[in-house]
Design goal:
The structure is a homodimer of 417-residue chains.
Chain A: H1 3-19, E1 42-46, H2 47-63, E2 67-68, H3 78-86, E3 92-94, H4 97-105, E4 110-116, H5 120-131, E5 135-140, H6 143-155, E6 160-166, H7 178-189, E7 194-201, H8 211-231, E8 241-244, H9 250-259, E9 267-270, H10 282-293, E10 305-316, E11 319-322, E12 336-341, E13 350-351, E14 357-361, E15 366-369, E16 382-386, H11 391-394, E17 399-403, E18 409-414
Parallel strand pairs in A: 1-17, 2-9, 3-4, 4-5, 5-6, 6-7, 7-8, 8-9
Antiparallel strand pairs in A: 1-10, 10-11, 10-16, 11-15, 12-13, 12-16, 14-15, 17-18
Chain lengths: 417, 417
């Protein structure tokens, strides 16, 4: 995209905001040098690592005979959904009915809602999606919910396609054992409006002294439960779906599905979400473990999401207050200062943040303890922060800025939380 | 508002969402009974305690000879700004330049930005507000920032009205001592584009073994610093502003200002934000302390903000998973289950949540440990949750629902984060 086009994109994005009466935190103006027309703090996605991650995970899934349905709840950014689908994704995973509606409104046709569908208003949203032609799947884990769904969709004259969720004792949702799975399959069969099309799980809530072993054992249970349902003739589709995986243990899930040759009789679906921009915390650690387990996976995921913010105050020696807060960045872990720029300077003229230590985050302020020799810090200096994890950074923003390696803004990406 | 009008409001709100391509999480449909047309989770503001709080804090400020400039960053909800101004507020306090722009766009003319103005793009936003006629104030705490502001606004041919921030050693922003305040006043005087119009502080970052004593001592320092600046002739306005106070220690600040009879020569301004909907955590505790200190303040603030969410799964005895997560509600403290309703039931037919214990919050799920005798819980049951604190609940929502005592939706309030 050339600079003039870029400016047009940015201006149009702004006009949209003004028209609807809201104002986004990060506003793009005309000057492309080092975000200098941008009101900071602003969330920034770097194009090169984004493109790398999109291709990397798609390739990973395909190499393991699986389909990819990236979890859209991470970003709720339609422009990223489009790129995931263009890269070859089978569909988009979502967490709630309103999220599914938003993704569908932006062109995602196959929607995997990896949660139970609860509440009349949410069922009505899904009914609307089905009537509009969506290829929609949700999960069930209890007879009561199955009856509620059966009644609602029968009254609407619609058929709802469901997957049974398999959980673990002490975990989150999902049937706790095979007997529960079988009983639920019977209950689904008794509801004319429901179609059983597969099995779903989420290994991210499986714990144990040896987490990798616990996840692998759970993946094995998923495989066995799927095969048992198939043997018993419970699936009402030719190629049932078997699906699991977030962005931490996707390798173990994919291997279990591949080792069982599920792809010959099922549609194995992986659902990582955070991979798309990766992070500088929880998922960076998880990725290190993946690469230890799988040294063949060269050049793994790269962090693509940062939040840029400015030094607001230097009120006493050794302390910088940054205009960045809990409303701007995820705080599972304290944000990590990555690089510093002088405002108005060039993108390749970075200044040191060696020894900079974030000590506290408030709603709109970040406290940084500076090293003793940090005598070159100026009010207005721009700090690029990394965060953990991406879901709780994306949801702070109505727009994120896509930038190239020179920090020129290439696009402004709207979210639909 | 009658039911038919209410329905129109709700439908218009939805249409606005569809037009701009985004979809809000909480969508209002036509049936007004117990939110049953509303996709949950949804954030709900109860009209009666809201109205009470609006009047209560305005009365408190006036009784102490102070003006009220409620901190708008809490809600970023223009409909609430309007009600605060209609109740008699002197202006709206905000934290950032984009927040000021949003408040101004929605009719707030007097804007007190209780932060340093940093960054060329943010200065440009403020310049635009000044040119549009805003009565704008921001704070300064360092010579470097003063020079940046002086240069920027002189080049624009504008005058920027500033207040000096007084901080505490080890605190957040602000001059650490009176010498710093005096030096800064000289620096401001040397900048033709800047007008020194008062003194600002924030007692919420003051700590000590006896917090109340520390806050009172800080309030006294504010008073003395203001008087000293006045005596030295540093203020360039007839009635300089002296301002402090969040929603925890406003009584001590107001008393210090009143005891010094500041209202005769200054404009004392209180800036609480969270009071408007209060909370079920940090501020409830703070309010108890206020009422212990000030037993004359009868019938204190009342919590007005709740998030309604539904039971999604009952996967094993004693465990309920609620469709509510970190993306829906503040989590400084774990959310508190307050009441339960059967979906489709009446607003006055509440069910028990005695012994319900939230144990964990994930992005989209809440774990509740149920008491042993909780045998009447159904999938889809609606739980009203209280939270701490309001700033980090409001910013999860693009719209909140204003409801009456029967839980009929009276209005849909848009936020502009």
């Amino acid at each position: 995209m050339r600079e003039t086009e870029n400016s047009v994109v940015a201006k149009e994005a702004n006009r949209g905001n003004a028209e609807r009466g809201g104002v986004d935190k990060g506003t793009v103006e005309l000057r492309p040098d080092l975000l200098s027309g941008v009101s900071l703090p602003a969330a920034v996605i770097h194009e090169a690592p984004l493109a790398h991650n999109l291709a990397w995970m798609q390739r990973f899934a395909e190499a393991h005979g699986a389909r990819l349905a990236p979890h859209g709840k991470t970003t709720m950014t339609p422009a990223l959904f489009r790129r995931q689908l263009e890269a070859g994704a089978w569909g988009i995973t979502l967490a709630t009915a309103p999220q599914c509606r938003a993704a569908f409104a932006h062109g995602a046709r196959r929607l995997l809602m990896a949660n139970q569908l609860v509440g009349q208003a949410n069922m009505a949203i899904v009914a609307g999606l089905l009537e509009a032609g969506a290829d929609f799947y949700c999960v069930v884990d209890g007879v009561e919910n199955v009856r509620q769904l059966g009644r609602f969709f029968e009254e609407r004259g619609l058929r709802l396609v469901v997957l049974i969720e398999l959980g673990v004792p002490g975990g989150r949702c999902g049937c706790r054992d095979q007997a529960g799975v079988e009983a639920l399959a019977e209950a689904i069969a008794a509801e004319p409006a429901l179609v059983l099309a597969g099995l779903e799980g989420y290994e991210g809530v499986v714990h144990g002294d040896d987490p990798a072993a616990a996840v692998s054992a759970y993946a094995q249970r998923l495989v066995e439960a799927a095969l048992a349902l198939e043997s018993a003739g419970h699936f009402e589709v030719d190629e049932p779906i078997v699906t699991a995986s977030g962005s931490a243990w996707y390798d173990l899930i994919a291997e279990a599905f591949q080792d069982a040759s599920l792809q010959n009789r099922f549609v194995p679906v992986l659902r990582p979400g955070c991979y798309v921009v990766h992070d500088h915390g929880l998922y960076r650690e998880a990725q290190r473990d993946v690469l230890v387990r799988r040294p063949d996976l060269q050049h793994g995921l790269e962090p693509a999401l940062e939040v840029f913010a400015q030094v607001q105050s230097l009120p006493e020696p050794g302390l910088a207050i940054i205009a960045l807060g809990k409303r701007d960045i995820g705080f599972d872990q304290l944000p990590v200062p990555l690089r510093r720029y002088r405002e108005g300077g060039a993108a390749n003229a970075t200044l040191s943040v060696a020894g900079w230590q974030v000590t506290k985050l408030m709603d709109q302020h970040t406290f940084v303890r500076l090293p003793e020799d940090a005598d070159d810090v100026a009010i207005g200096d721009i700090i690029a922060f990394g965060a953990s994890h991406p879901c709780l950074t994306f949801d702070k923003w109505r727009q994120l800025l896509l930038v190239d390696e020179t920090l020129e803004v290439r696009d402004s990406l709207s979210t639909c939380f």
